[in-house]
Write a structure and sequence with these properties.
about 290 residues, 8-stranded mixed β-sheet
């Protein structure tokens, strides 16, 4: 009976959050270890289905870097990375689209469907959902002219059209979105999934943006996870060097989302089982939240 009573208390603790988020959209970027570990994949699917059943509207944007890298290796196609982004020529773009849209996207859809949910997959090309343009990268160099880097078919989001996503949601489906966009001339671009998720959250007027990562959250200089950051604190953390490396673009993505109207953005550890549920429905959470 003690165990059953504890479960009841947990449900009651979640009640205020269920009430607050009922009917609201939550955009989740799915990537990292959570996409490769079998137990975490099943946990992710069940977390998403639970959100749907209790009245939230989850929208999933997924990555697929390791899967792309594996396929490129099998096809003997070499690629370089600049500033953390994959240089994408036409041959690489063909593989990126094939893996993200044809393989990874459908695996996630199938996983959720087999777990009791109803999901539908699409890419940013469907319904011109993600209008993109070629990313221009200029890297400043000390005592030297800035370097202009041609990343090929790496793009950035110009606009998100929400019509197709909202139609899918209206029919009760969970949208699963591959971060491939198209420009005005029909050219296809590979886009960073974090920034697609951030733009998607803003366009859908989402209550929350959640980025699943392979770290515990934003950490301070001593390695402790910072549970909450205001916009001002986040900017200071970047400028002071407290936040560095791959966490910088994730934190900037969160900042842009909250500045565009998303109430809260979260960077959480996708290696923790049920991390999505823990972050949304418990007081302590499991990562870092970013707010205005």
């Amino acid at each position: 009976m003690q165990n059953e009573a504890a479960k009841a208390r947990i449900l009651l603790e979640a009640l205020p959050y269920i009430r607050e988020f009922f009917g609201q959209t939550v955009v989740i970027k799915y990537g990292g270890h959570a996409m490769t570990d079998l137990a975490l994949k099943k946990s992710f699917a069940l977390n998403i289905i639970l959100l749907k059943y209790i009245g939230l509207n989850p929208v999933i944007v997924h990555g697929g870097g390791p899967q792309i890298g594996k396929m490129l290796s099998q096809l003997n196609i070499s690629c370089d990375f600049r500033e953390g982004l994959r240089v994408t020529d036409q041959a690489t773009m063909d593989v990126v689209e094939m893996v993200l849209v044809g393989q990874v996207n459908k695996e996630i859809v199938n996983l959720i469907n087999l777990s009791g949910g109803v999901a539908a997959g699409l890419s940013g090309k469907d319904g011109r959902t993600i209008l993109a343009r070629k990313m221009e990268m200029v890297v400043s160099k000390k005592d030297a002219p800035p370097e202009i880097i041609d990343l090929g078919k790496v793009g950035e989001v110009v606009r998100i059209s929400t019509g197709l996503i909202e139609s899918i949601q209206a029919k009760g489906f969970i949208p699963i979105i591959a971060p491939v966009g198209v420009d005005e001339d029909g050219e296809t671009y590979n886009i960073n999934a974090d920034f697609v998720a951030g733009s998607m959250a803003s366009a859908l007027r989402a209550k929350k943006l959640i980025l699943l990562t392979d770290v515990a959250g934003v950490q301070d200089s001593s390695g402790e996870v910072i549970s909450s950051l205001t916009r001002k604190q986040a900017v200071q953390a970047i400028e002071s060097g407290t936040v560095a490396g791959g966490m910088i673009p994730k934190l900037k993505c969160c900042l842009e989302a909250v500045e565009e109207g998303v109430q809260k953005a979260h960077i959480i550890d996708g290696r923790v089982e049920n991390s999505i549920i823990l972050e949304i429905f418990t007081r302590g959470g499991v990562g870092t939240e970013v707010v205005l």
